User: What shape does this take?
Amino acid sequence: MARAFEIEPIDATFGAVVRGIRLADIDAAAFRQLHDAWLEYALLVFPGQHLRRDEQVAFARRFGALEFEILPISNVRSDGTVRPEQDNDDVIKILKGNMGWHHDSTYMPVQAKGAVFSAEEVPGSGGQTGFADMRAAYDALDAATRARLEGMSAHHSLHYSQSKLGHSARKADGEYHGYGFHDGPVPLRPLVKVHPETGRKSLLIGRHAHNIPGLAPDESERFIEGLIDFACQPPRTYHHDWTPGDTVLWDNRCLMHQATPWDMTQRRIMWHSRIAGDPASESAVSAVASG
Assistant: This one.
């Protein structure tokens, strides 16, 4: 069957730009081809889509149930004013936390499958979104490190990662104390993940990962940071320069991502739809009570 769209691979170990397709209008056959391309490339970039919010939600739903339908990732308040960076409020702290490499929802009982992300307004410079291929990172490890990792796991917590920015959402008066800041058990996840659809192994690390059982906290932190530094290097990384109307789809099971800094006096409005993971493959292996 001829492909219903054009694919141009990105100059990295993963990712492709897809043209000649309107995401709001694809039929079942084109979606099957698109799904296959997503599993192969892990990141698909769709320029010039300009999806309405309901269209973005409908497209994301084609990949499965949603963890949440759509949320703004933005330094612009609902009244249209820009949040002053110097106020360093809870939302600014979340935006800055997102600048660390991470997988989405590893701190939840079930890790997300993927996400659809789109740009409404972007700053004149900066504000890219970076992606990193954890499949290629695992493949690039030496045999001794791969063997060591097979038996290792780490806990994942948004409380932990945001605390490094002085952000505690346990206080009742905080502006952001909802999604992800749960007081339930802290998930434990293996450092090596097997993709449930492709069978490929990848690293499962990122800024939420900490407290590897069997290691002292400082040793655990150094080990995870070393893995992140190793993994997130070219040709395993790609940073997308946004144009309003762009939409991207990524596989959260094998890619990490990060925001990058921008002049926060400039507006940046992005829309995020998160695809829920399958509990059979994305559940934590165990959990401990939160402190």
Summary: DSSP finds eight helices and 16 strands in the chain. The mean pLDDT is 93. The first helix runs from residue 28 to 41. The radius of gyration is 19 Å.
